[in-house]
Amino acid sequence: MVTIYDIAKEANVSAMTVSRVINNAVNVSENTRRKVELVIEKLNYVPNSSARSLVSKKSKILSLMVTDISNPFFTSVARGAEDKAMQMGYQLMLCNSDENVDKESKYIDMLISTRIDGALIAPAKDSSIKSILKLSKFNIPVVLIDRHIKELECDQVLSDNETTTRKLIEHLIIQGHEKIAIINGPLDIATARERHKAYCDTLRSHGLEINNNLIQQSHFFQDSDFSDIIDQMFKLPVSEQPTAIFSTSNFIGINTVKSLRKHNIKVPEDVAVVCYDGVPNYTESEPFLTAAEQPAYNFGYIGTQLLIERIENTAPATPRKIVLPSELHIRASSLHNPID
Q1: Who's near 142: CB < 8 A, 6+ residues apart?
Q2: Is the peptide bond before 287 cis (omega within 30 degrees of 0)?
Q3: Which residue, 36, 168, 188, 251, has fewest beta-carbon neighbours within 10 Å?
Q4: Which tens digits make up the pLDDT trace of 311-327?
Q5: Global pTM?
Q6: Are residues 106 and 203 in the same domain?
Q7: Which residues form the domain of 21?
Q8: Distance CA 44, CA 33 (A)
């Protein structure tokens, strides 16, 4: 293994000079710097980042903790986070909690032992606060993305759940729907809770009844099967059956349509469907689902910017909260008017 002493001997300079070149110190002449860099390249020397971190007290490593990397939303978040991290001279470590608080806690213990500089986290649940607070004990800055935890004071990059949900529900109301169901994730997750509240508030503001039989919960995973939920809804008296369904995530939206088709219920002819978040278009066919698409890339990019500012002590003392708007895309899944 090549060391800085090998570089120094080959370049005929001191080991201290090699160290200064590696660490971009200013007190090195351009000729000496160039000579050392040529030897580094010739000998294929790779600096020992662990040793450098002991001196600088910084590892230049960030962590991104997401709840489901298979979800295209978090894939785009990761891309934005990585781009910003690389731009600022940091490396990004990806962790996937699978919405599991225990798995998340184990990852956090590993991140502490790895001596990361900061963590960008989409919490698995509200109860994630216990393990996230461990990071604070080790003076590791945290930025929350997508989901927040009420008791945790830190920088946040969140979606405008209230406004976006209201727009989706009002779109259905304009189409003539009055019996609107919701299929949601667990209410111990901030995004699910806020979308549930906005759904109820919007129905009330338009004088529409809130029917608890049309309020259903599942989870946000790709392999969700809502056959039982759909079966339950459409065994209600005809006067109570939904004519539209609000799905609170992209995977819930896709699986809602699949489950409806299993029951020979046509979308949008029999039931309209809208969903929160963009739906991946893996084919070149026309996109089908009406969706409120979040700027996923920006969650990662902006979140990483805030995190690095915390690490480098350039952020204001007061925690910052950035709320990103979504863009509503009206498509075929919600354009049938049941009154016609």
Answers
A1: 118, 119, 120, 121, 132, 135, 136, 152, 154, 155, 307
A2: no
A3: 188
A4: 999 999 999 999 999 99
A5: 0.82
A6: no
A7: 4-47
A8: 16
